[in-house]
């Protein structure tokens, strides 16, 4: 089963550039800056692009302000977005005015107001609120197949036909469950397990321990894609950073499964591209 796709050239370059500007922001003379805000269960990520849609700065913070795709700590979320905004403004020497944000599949009617208020409360003018799969696909640029976003709290499944999202689902299994399994197996606290899991040097050793959870995620994917003529799966979301996860999913779903080099920042960058 192939797991690397040359069509990710744009995505991989964009993410590589973004990783660089997280470490070292680029001060530019851009007339406008576009900020993508990804309010996740595990991380809040801000991605800033210049007028040519090139990454100039980025920041992220581990936070528990969103649960199952819904904002549960409104004040906390606003405070963190405001702090990250200020941090980036100091580094860029410019005020950030415009931002877009995204919602997980299926939560639009329930939570769009809360997310909008978090973004505005942090001092941004909100230009767009879009769904996460559409954001991810601005970077992946696929026409047909399933985008599977395995984040912290949930797994989002979106099916695309001719470049349009035709089906979405969000299931409450994600990286947090992976960390809980690691915590149990290694007798670590959740925080220790989270750090251990994110360290790429431990991935090979962890995979046998995590295989049952990956298989569970695969069965969830299967349940959603089987009604559609899905030929390929594209993985995004921080949990897909786990080395080898794509091979297990490909085997369990019997579908070619591709992932970009760093699947974690695809959605935040896609949000910024839509700003
Ligand atoms: P959700 O999409 O569920 O709202 P989120 O947007 O916060 O959550 P992401 O930022 O896509 O989700 O991913 C966060 C998850 O990715 C966390 O569980 C984190 O532990 C996991 N993760 C991040 N980096 C790695 C890594 N290098 N290896 C394994 N897991 C990782």
N-C termini distance: 36 Å
Structural class: alpha/beta
**Strand order, largest beta sheet:** 3-2-1-6-7
* Strand residue percentage: 15-25%
Number of helices: 9
How helix-rich are the residues, as a percent range?
A: 40-55%
CATH superfamily of the largest domain: ATPase, nucleotide binding domain
Main sheet overview: 5 strands, mixed
Task: Please tell me the overall pLDDT.
Answer: 92
- Could you tell me the CATH topology label of the largest domain: Nucleotidyltransferase, domain 5
List the domain count as a whole number. Answer: 2
The low-confidence parts are: none
Order of helices and strands: HEEEEEHEHEHEEEHHHEHEH
Number of strands: 12
The CATH architecture of the largest domain would be 2-Layer Sandwich
Question: Please, could you describe this protein's structure?
Answer:
The chain is of the alpha/beta class. It has 2 domains: 6-134 and 265-273, Nucleotidyltransferase, domain 5, CATH 3.30.420; 137-263, Nucleotidyltransferase, domain 5. 43% of the residues lie in helices and 24% in strands. It is built from 9 helices and 12 strands. A hairpin with a 3-residue loop joins strand 1 and strand 2. It is globular and about 50 Å long. It binds adenosine-5'-triphosphate. The site of adenosine-5'-triphosphate has 25 residues, from helix 5 and helix 6.
């Amino acid at each position: 089963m192939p797991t690397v796709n040359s069509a990710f050239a744009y995505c991989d370059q964009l993410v590589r550039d973004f990783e660089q500007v997280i470490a070292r922001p680029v001060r530019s003379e851009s007339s406008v800056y576009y900020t993508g805000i990804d309010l996740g269960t595990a991380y809040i990520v801000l991605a800033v692009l210049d007028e040519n849609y090139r990454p100039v700065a980025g920041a992220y913070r581990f936070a528990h302000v969103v649960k199952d795709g819904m904002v549960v700590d409104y004040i906390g979320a606003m405070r963190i977005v405001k702090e990250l905004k200020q941090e980036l403004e100091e580094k860029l020497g410019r005020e950030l005015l415009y931002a877009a944000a995204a919602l997980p599949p299926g939560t639009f009617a329930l939570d769009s107001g809360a997310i909008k208020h978090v973004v505005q409360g942090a001092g941004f003018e909100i230009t767009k609120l879009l769904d996460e799969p559409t954001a991810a696909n601005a970077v992946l640029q696929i026409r047909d197949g399933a985008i599977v976003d395995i984040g912290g709290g949930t797994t989002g499944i979106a099916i695309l036909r001719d470049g349009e999202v035709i089906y979405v689902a969000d299931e409450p299994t994600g990286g947090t469950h992976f960390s809980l399994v690691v915590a149990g197996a290694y007798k670590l606290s959740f925080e220790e397990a989270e750090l251990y899991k994110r360290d790429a040097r431990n991935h090979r050793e962890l995979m046998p321990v995590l295989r049952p959870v990956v298989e569970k995620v695969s069965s969830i994917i299967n349940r959603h894609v089987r009604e559609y003529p899905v030929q390929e799966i594209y993985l995004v979301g921080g949990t897909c950073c786990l080395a080898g996860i794509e091979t297990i999913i490909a085997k369990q779903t019997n579908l070619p499964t591709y992932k970009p080099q760093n699947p974690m920042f695809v959605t935040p960058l896609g949000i910024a591209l839509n700003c």
